[in-house]
Specification:
single chain; 6-stranded mixed sheet
């Protein structure tokens, strides 16, 4: 569907502009990302945080946006989440606030964004050597998912891809090998999830596993190993065994392959952008764009 993150940014700029609510607006990098997104027609920024500090930062970067004044993290999180839950086509963005505080507000039973679904992180990798964007989950939220959590992670990823326009994404359950090995529980769980899909328990996508990273991404590798699968060589979404492999995979795309990574948290009633200070400007812009397109869907 998309070759690069720039394609997604273009898609977002052509769509309906919704709110992007920044929780903890005393964040220069976050404000710069929102400024660049706003200049491209992606998102209508709403800032929640210390109005004095935020106003000074806005003046420094020559940007203007509405501010909701809030002076402690709990109030910031509550006001930001309430602003998202009361708006249509809105997404939430983490600024200068602890992730744990923000997610606690997201999961509030009275006014939060909880849906009963597992929260999981979906990364989007733009790597020069590949002919398409690759999505990876979960390298940021669930440390060691069990079988049922892996199914939820898969469904969250599919929900995101469908909201971006992928009608029926190809999903690969990644392991070190593509054969079932009782000594490697990741392979048996992957095979079980693939069987669940074959029996109609997982819909809206095409799933196979276990698959190695090479034969999930490369048709040549799949053909060489004699793997016949509609997913092999064509995977859009890679579901990894645990957080470490997902984290390593995402960072290796950036630091070993000169790629760019974006991403967000899914499973809530609205997408949540959680960016790192180490992320590039292009990465932050792309994360906002993905959230904007998903929220508008």
């Amino acid at each position: 569907m998309y070759r690069t993150l720039d394609d997604l940014v273009k898609k977002a700029s052509e769509g309906k502009m919704g709110k992007v609510v920044l929780a903890g607006s005393e964040d220069r990098e976050g404000l710069l990302a929102l400024k660049h997104a706003s200049e491209k027609g992606i998102g209508d920024p709403l800032l929640v945080g210390d109005s004095n500090v935020t106003s000074r930062l806005l003046e420094e970067i020559s940007f203007d946006a509405e501010i909701i004044d809030a002076r402690n993290e709990q109030t910031v999180a509550e006001e930001a989440v309430k602003a998202v839950s009361s708006s249509s086509h809105a997404c939430l963005m983490k600024g200068r606030i602890k992730t744990s505080v923000l997610l606690k507000a997201v999961l509030n039973k009275e006014w939060g964004l909880r849906t009963g679904r597992l929260l999981s992180h979906v990364a989007c990798l733009d790597v020069p050597g590949l002919d398409r964007l690759i999505f990876v989950s979960d390298g940021g939220m669930v440390v060691r998912p069990d079988l049922s959590q892996k199914v939820e992670i898969l469904k969250n990823g599919v929900d995101l891809l469908q909201s971006l326009g992928y009608e029926r994404p190809f999903v690969a359950l990644i392991a070190a090998v593509e054969t079932v090995n009782p000594d490697m529980p990741e392979t048996t769980e992957a095979a079980m999830i693939a069987k669940m899909h074959a029996r109609g328990q997982i819909r809206g996508c095409t799933v196979d596993g276990p698959l190695g990273l090479d034969n999930a991404l490369s048709t040549v590798a799949a053909k060489t190993k004699g793997i016949e699968s509609p997913v092999a060589g064509h995977a859009d979404l890679l579901v990894v065994p645990e957080i470490h492999s997902g984290n390593f995979l995402g960072k290796s795309a950036v630091y070993l392959a000169e790629g760019v990574i974006a991403g967000l948290v899914m499973g809530a009633a609205a997408p949540i952008v959680i960016v790192s200070r180490a992320d590039s400007e292009r990465s932050k812009l792309a994360s906002i764009a993905i959230a904007a397109v998903s929220a508008s869907h």
